């Protein structure tokens, strides 16, 4: 079948990884594209100076959703210093490219990560400590209050 | 996978009778209508037969008033720019509606960049143009009024006969872009008071590669394509004979079938909208309610908290072809100028979907869509930050009231 997006992008759009929110995030980042209205919320769990978990919610086109999903996969396990160097080009490359003109739809992910790291820095400054302010609860997952992530009979 | 096609506004399958009529003109009767030998004369005969068929379809006074072009966009360009060029001594002001097709609006912009002025008349919340506002926009130097018959995105029928009457009264040429209504409604250029009218038969079973511009004998028009004497000097270039033959057959069939097409699609349209309204909270119809003010094949709606292209792709993954007026164009994010003109909030404009039905669609296909679509909405809302905020009571919906029966 002819398709606009490659298989990797389609897979991340149809089966988004790490969708939702962390129940007690160590940092939350928000990003929005003022010109098209796309928005992304990214929540991070940070332990020992490393991103141990990332979750996202996105309003946007397939490229924006797939980029957000891929970004949460890419940043997990990275140190904060590494995460600060993260770019949307990395997302596009990991997705195997986006259709011409759609590369811009991936910038939300990098913006939301930057916003989350700023949030983390603010929280750290407030708590005045290197330690994480709260323990990170890893399980259970968080989607029970909203629609199922994907209807099993659908895909 | 089962395929359901709900995008007849973009393209329609060419009718078998049309294909059969076209077939001889590719290889057997391949002549150039300008040639004086038998091959050419045969092609010319076919061309003139199609011209007569289209002339009758529009109730033109004479087939000579029909110009064949490459498509509807070329016809619109010729109407707008050709009139402005022909009437440049009279003045340099155009009146168009805000929700015209881009072929008309972009032609107007082209002329504006070259010193002409253009007034874009606004519309009401359902997309209706007020003839009184068209009248107010007229100036001494107005050379053309351009208003479409039916809007291509929201299916609203405009009061073209009223606007045509006032144009005649004021002595201003009136151009009707009839592309989204052709094949659905009888087109009578005299009743509409149209000096110019255009459409493309590919919207109703004709082939691509041909457009029609009706030009009243008294409507001034300068050609945009220069070269040979084709189309009476109004459009140079060898005619696309097979497509033109197909156009003639398509309009003849449309003339016979359009009442049945309308009735059939109106039933499906109602079934679709009733089903969507009942099954999905936070959905808004764009344009007039199904009924006499709306083209029966068209349904345009916005689903709040989710984006249009994502809905479109998930539909496509299910084998259902639909369109979005606000498909993400990447950088810049193109939103529909039509929805903008209706005053629709940006978030709703982004969640836009357009379904356009055709005569071969069935009630069963509609039900199939109605079964699949709520799951698509639920999946995307499950990912949406704004939906989650709404669920937690942090934001108010734009579409109110959000009816009972939340999808999750």
Written description of the protein model:
The complex is a heterodimer of chains A (155) and B (408). Chain A contains five helices and three strands. Chain A is elongated, with a radius of gyration of 16 Å. Chain A has one domain (7-125): Sufe protein. Chain: A. Chain A is an alpha+beta fold. Chain A has a three-stranded antiparallel β-sheet. In chain A, strand 2 and strand 3 form a beta hairpin. Chain B is of the alpha/beta class. Chain B has two domains: 16-254, 3-Layer(aba) Sandwich (Aspartate Aminotransferase, domain 2), CATH 3.40.640.10; 258-391, Alpha-Beta Complex (Aspartate Aminotransferase, domain 1), CATH 3.90.1150.10. In chain B, 40% of the residues lie in helices and 13% in strands. Chain B contains 13 helices and twelve strands. Chain B has helices at 16-22, 38-57, 72-86, 102-112, 131-137, 160-170, 189-192, 241-279, 308-317, 337-341, 346-350, 363-383, 385-391, and strands at 4-5, 66-69, 93-97, 117-121, 142-148, 174-177, 196-199, 211-215, 283-285, 298-303, 320-321, 352-356. In chain B, strand 6 (174-177), helix 7 (189-192) and strand 7 (196-199) form a beta-alpha-beta unit. In chain B, helix 1 (16-22) runs antiparallel to helix 8 (241-279) and helix 2 (38-57) packs parallel to helix 8. The longest helix of chain B is centred in the middle third of the chain and has 39 residues, at 241-279. Classes of the chains: A alpha+beta (155), B alpha/beta (408). The interface between A and B is large, with 42 and 36 residues.
């Amino acid at each position: 079948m002819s398709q606009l997006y490659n298989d990797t992008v389609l897979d991340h759009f149809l089966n988004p990884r790490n969708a939702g929110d962390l129940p007690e995030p160590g940092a939350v980042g928000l990003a929005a594209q003022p010109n098209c209205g796309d928005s992304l919320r990214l929540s991070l769990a940070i332990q020992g100076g490393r991103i141990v978990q990332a979750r996202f919610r996105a309003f946007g086109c397939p490229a924006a959703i797939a980029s957000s999903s891929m970004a949460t996969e890419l940043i997990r396990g990275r140190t904060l210093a590494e995460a600060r160097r993260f770019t949307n080009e990395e997302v596009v490359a990991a997705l195997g490219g986006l259709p011409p003109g759609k590369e811009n739809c991936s910038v939300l992910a990098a913006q939301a990560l930057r916003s989350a790291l700023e949030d983390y820095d603010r929280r750290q400054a407030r708590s005045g400590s290197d330690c994480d302010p709260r323990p990170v609860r890893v399980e259970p997952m968080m989607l029970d209050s909203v629609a199922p992530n994907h209807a099993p009979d659908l895909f | 996978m089962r395929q359901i096609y709900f995008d007849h506004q973009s393209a329609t399958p060419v009718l078998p009778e049309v294909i059969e009529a076209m077939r001889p003109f590719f290889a057997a009767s391949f002549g150039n209508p300008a040639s004086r030998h038998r091959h050419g004369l045969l092609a010319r005969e076919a061309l003139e037969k199609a011209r007569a068929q289209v002339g009758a379809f529009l109730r033109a006074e004479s087939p000579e008033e029909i110009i064949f072009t490459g498509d509807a966009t070329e016809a619109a360009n010729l109407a707008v720019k050709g009139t402005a060029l022909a009437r440049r001594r009279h003045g340099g002001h155009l009146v168009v509606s805000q929700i015209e097709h881009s072929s008309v609006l972009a032609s107007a912009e082209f002329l504006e960049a070259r010193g002409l002025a253009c007034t874009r008349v606004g519309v009401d919340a359902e997309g209706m143009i007020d003839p009184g506002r068209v009248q107010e926009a007229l100036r001494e130097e107005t050379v053309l009024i351009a208003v479409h018959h039916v809007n291509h995105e929201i299916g609203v029928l405009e009061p073209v006969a009223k606007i045509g009457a006032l144009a005649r009264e004021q002595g201003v040429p009136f151009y009707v872009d009839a592309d989204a209504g052709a094949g659905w409604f009888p087109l009578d250029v005299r009743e509409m008071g149209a000096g110019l009218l255009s459409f493309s038969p590919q919207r109703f079973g004709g082939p691509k590669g041909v457009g029609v511009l009706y030009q009243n004998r008294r409507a001034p028009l300068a050609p945009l394509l220069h070269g040979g004497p084709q189309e009476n000097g109004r459009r140079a270039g060898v005619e696309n004979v097979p497509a033109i033959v197909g156009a003639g057959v398509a309009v003849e069939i449309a003339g016979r079938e359009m009442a049945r097409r309308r009735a059939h699609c109106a039933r499906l349209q109602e079934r679709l909208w009733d089903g969507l309204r009942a099954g999905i909270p936070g959905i808004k119809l764009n344009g007039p309610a199904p009924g006499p003010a709306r083209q029966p094949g068209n349904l345009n709606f916005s689903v709040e908290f989710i984006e249009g292209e994502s809905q479109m792709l998930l539909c496509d993954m299910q084998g259902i072809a639909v369109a979005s007026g606000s498909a993400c164009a990447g950088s810049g994010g193109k939103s529909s100028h039509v929805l903008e003109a209706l005053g629709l909030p940006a978030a709703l404009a982004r969640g836009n979907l357009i379904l356009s039905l055709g005569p071969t669609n069935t009630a069963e296909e509609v039900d199939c869509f109605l079964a699949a679509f709520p799951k698509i909405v639920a999946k995307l809302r499950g990912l949406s930050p704004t939906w989650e905020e709404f669920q937690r009571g942090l934001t108010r919906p734009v579409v109110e009231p959000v009816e009972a029966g939340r999808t999750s």
